[in-house]
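Try this one yourself first.
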């Protein structure tokens, strides 16, 4: 087959193909399947957490799913690589269901060119849905284009309506969030939420298109890095920092660019204002102990609320909102998001998400 003309067909060549795989998948029936770590992690949050969690699974060449048989895992792989897990699920039910589903599912070319396919009820669609039921958690429906959800997947009636509804809700909130996450100032481009390599402590590593910064093994003491976006004029600015890997201690806040040293901890500099994972707020001469309970845990979510109208700052930690830091009542007119960390710290910045 000539390659390069159909993405769908090219990706099918990779499914369960040892030649293009770097991980073995051991199933309940002890059958081995094969997959590509990068594709699995990119397409599924479940696989991403399993294969890139820094634990032993991150380095081993085999993973096990003792509760999923090989047939079910083939459906997972089918979706992960091509988006069409329902085809194999229908095959398990009946040939009629399989043939009808093949007619209903368009090719990638038909999707891109908005070509309608014939609408025909799927035989035994409830049984197909039952086959898919234990595998739904591996499918990130939020990655699927809205048009595909509305025009193709929802009418098949093989995915629970609650899941489809949750995706619609998420997408609606995301659209609104991208416009309004900085109130009074519209910034619709999420590329603003990235760490700045030109304003970064030595040896800190920035990855994932600028969204993640981490300190490699042996790096200490604290180094700092600021985000690219400047926060100035009027408005209320809000963003999240996810501490994917905690260090002793983790610090999140804001800084001014004047006389700021990224090779040092932000909280000891006059132009740095940060909240630490010990629950204290630090700035020379304007510190506050016991602002909130400590958050020494991986996955902690800190939201920074910067009110440039009043030049004040407050924080939300793991969903709990705290008051303005009383000692910080006259912040400068231009600030940047900043964090301080050392090994093994790993921090992600993103638009504020409720």
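Now uncover the answer:
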């Amino acid at each position: 087959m000539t390659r390069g003309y159909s993405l769908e067909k090219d990706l099918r060549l990779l499914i369960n193909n040892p030649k293009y795989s770097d991980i073995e998948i051991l199933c309940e029936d002890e059958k081995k399947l094969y997959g590509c770590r990068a594709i699995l992690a990119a397409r599924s949050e479940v696989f991403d957490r399993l294969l890139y969690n820094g634990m032993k699974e991150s380095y081993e060449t085999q993973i096990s799913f003792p509760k999923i048989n090989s047939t079910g895992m083939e459906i997972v792989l089918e979706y992960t690589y091509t988006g069409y897990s329902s085809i194999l699920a229908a095959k398990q039910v009946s040939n009629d269901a399989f043939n009808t589903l093949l007619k209903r599912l368009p090719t990638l070319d038909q999707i891109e060119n908005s070509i309608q396919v014939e609408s025909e009820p799927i035989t035994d669609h409830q049984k197909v849905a039952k086959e898919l039921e234990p595998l739904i958690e591996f499918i990130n429906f939020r990655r699927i284009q809205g048009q595909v959800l509305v025009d193709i997947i929802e009418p098949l009636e093989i995915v629970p309506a609650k899941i489809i509804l949750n995706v619609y809700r998420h997408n609606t909130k995301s659209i609104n969030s991208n416009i309004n996450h900085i109130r009074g100032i519209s910034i619709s481009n999420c590329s603003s939420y990235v760490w700045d390599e030109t304003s970064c402590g030595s040896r800190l590593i920035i990855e994932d298109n600028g969204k993640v910064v981490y300190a490699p093994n042996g790096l200490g003491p604290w180094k700092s890095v600021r985000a690219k976006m400047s926060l100035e004029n009027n408005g209320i600015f809000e963003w999240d920092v996810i501490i994917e890997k905690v260090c002793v201690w983790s610090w999140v806040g804001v800084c001014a660019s004047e006389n700021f040293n990224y090779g040092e901890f932000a909280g000891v500099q006059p132009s740095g204002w940060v909240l630490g994972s010990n629950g204290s707020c630090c700035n020379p001469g304007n510190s506050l102990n016991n602002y909130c309970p400590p958050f020494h845990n991986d996955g902690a979510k800190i939201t920074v609320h910067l009110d440039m109208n009043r030049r004040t700052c407050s924080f939300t930690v793991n969903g709990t909102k705290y008051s303005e830091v009383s000692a910080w009542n006259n912040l400068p007119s231009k600030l940047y998001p900043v964090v301080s960390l050392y090994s093994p710290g790993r921090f992600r910045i993103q638009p504020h998400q409720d």
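Discussion: Confidence is low (pLDDT under 50) at residues 85-93, 106-115, 177-189. The longest strand covers residues 236-245.
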